[in-house]
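Changelog-adjacent note: as of this version, every example in the card shows the full chain rather than a window. The one below runs 67 residues end to end.
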Amino acid sequence: MKCPTCGSDRFYLKDDEDEYEIYEFTLKGSEVQFDEGLDPGSLPNVTADRETYCDKCAWHGAFDTLT
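Full-length structure tokens:
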């Protein structure tokens, strides 16, 4: 799965309660791999309708729209 605009496999999610807190991850196929150093207990749940942001371009949209 990659960004539909630029083809990147690097993305991030914003924290539901703190818009300045982000969780960066890479997609390996359809598997979400959060960056090392993040507390596993604090990671957000990635659902099909979760707003996802590309780390390389301005694209953002629902997780299930990634190609």
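Structural remarks: The CA atoms of residues 2 and 8 lie 5 Å apart.
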